[in-house]
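Final report, closing paragraph on structural work. Over the funding period we assembled a curated collection of sequence-structure pairs, and we close with a single example.
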Amino acid sequence: MKKSIVLFLLVLTLATVFTSCTKDDSGPVDMNYIEGKWIFNKSTATSSGFTIPYSTDYFKNEDGCNKDYIELIAGGVAKYGNYSLNCVFEGKEGTWTQSGNTITISVSGTSFNGTFNVASLSATELLLKIDGTYAGNSGTFNLYFTK
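Its predicted structure, as stored:
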């Protein structure tokens, strides 16, 4: 009987951990901090309630190199900096606009093109989210930045 109770509590705890709700990021965000140079920190993908680290050649920092960034400048100028293998720097310039809690970034020839939900923003941290389909599964791609 004691083993059954322990097993039940273990299953209940695991079920709670794997099905617990995530923070609702749909509320208003103070967009006063959006301008500036945002250093890429990490990316994750969320699908079916699970969040995992996610990186591609476009969304990762190279070991030993400066970190990739996106700089959002007043007047709608966006600057993208990417360090590839052997720390080779590639900088490109494009545009950005804001509407409510969303920003649209367009920097030709880069992975930074699209409309992103500003899920979280402070003077030092930025979380951008974009919904889509990845490998046939719908989910959310999360990009974390710091100033």
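Residues 62 and 84 are 6 Å apart (CA to CA). Helices lie at 2-19. We thank the funder for supporting this effort.
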